[in-house]
Amino acid sequence: MLNSEKLTIAGQLAAGIAHEVRNPLTAIKGFLQLMERKMEDQTYFGIIESEIDRIELILSELLVLAKPQDFKFESVYLPALIEDIKTLIDTQAIMNNVKIEVVNTDEPITINGDINQLKQVFINFLKNAIEAMPNGGSCIIEMKAIGENKVKIFFKDTGDGIPPQLLKRIGEPFFTTKENGTGLGIMISKQIIENHHGTVHFWSDKKGTIIEVILPLQ
Ligand code: ADP
Ligand code: MG
């Protein structure tokens, strides 16, 4: 509990800082573009711009960690939300030869949550799955009610998997194995699910990765 408290505070701090840094950064970026037009020597502009883009990417990930009191909790019909996410990410999946399949028992699975935050979580998981399958594959999203008051959502991919020695580091801030990764997606997703009183677990081997999310039903 103490750890999750610490993470919440760190998360809020990170989101607050991200918010404050974004405005001056936008100004710097704008003036840089003005300068670029006037300068004959363009040598370093490309590097500066790509570094600014990188800062913006990290800020945009951190901004998702809004204050819990900013969340808008409402009734969320999960099968519809998952369908929305699938539509959103399908183009990227198809381009990477990845088939996303939704397995849905016909149970009326409704939870209490913030739609945008939950979407963010599922997009993060699906993006990671696609990125773990450079030669294509499949990702199955399965949801079912367990008992009277919980829902279990599985994300199963046929990707490269996470080596056992790295599995325990998943969710550490800035832990990434990707050249252009931020290592913030899983940390943020775990935090959001915890804010929804849920849990996240990972299993992985060379055949792929399974993510299990458990959330309380409404
Ligand atoms: P990023 O995607 O920017 O690297 P994440 O927090 O989303 O950051 O993920 C952290 C790391 O966890 C990834 O770099 C990758 O090594 C590993 N990972 C996450 N999801 C998967 C997955 N489905 N299959 C294999 N590895 C994964
Ligand atoms: Mg990611």
UniProtKB/TrEMBL annotation:
Pfam families reported in the protein's UniProt record: HATPase_c, HisKA
InterPro entries: HATPase_C_sf, HATPase_dom, His_kinase_dom, HisK_dim/P_dom, HisK_dim/P_sf, Sig_transdc_His_kin-like_C
Domain of life the protein comes from: Bacteria
EC id: 2.7.13.3
Tagged with keyword ATP-binding: yes
BP GO terms, sorted: sporulation resulting in formation of a cellular spore
Gene3D superfamilies associated with the record: 1.10.287.130, Histidine kinase-like ATPase, C-terminal domain
Domain Histidine kinase: from-to ranges: 16-218
Catalyzed reaction equations: ATP + protein L-histidine = ADP + protein N-phospho-L-histidine
GO molecular function: ATP binding; phosphorelay sensor kinase activity
Matches recorded under SMART domains: HATPase_c (SM00387), HisKA (SM00388)
Keyword field: ATP-binding, Kinase, Nucleotide-binding, Phosphoprotein, Sporulation, Transferase, Two-component regulatory system
Name this protein carries in UniProt: histidine kinase
Organism whose genome encodes this protein: Neobacillus rhizophilus
Lineage: Bacteria, Bacillati, Bacillota, Bacilli, Bacillales
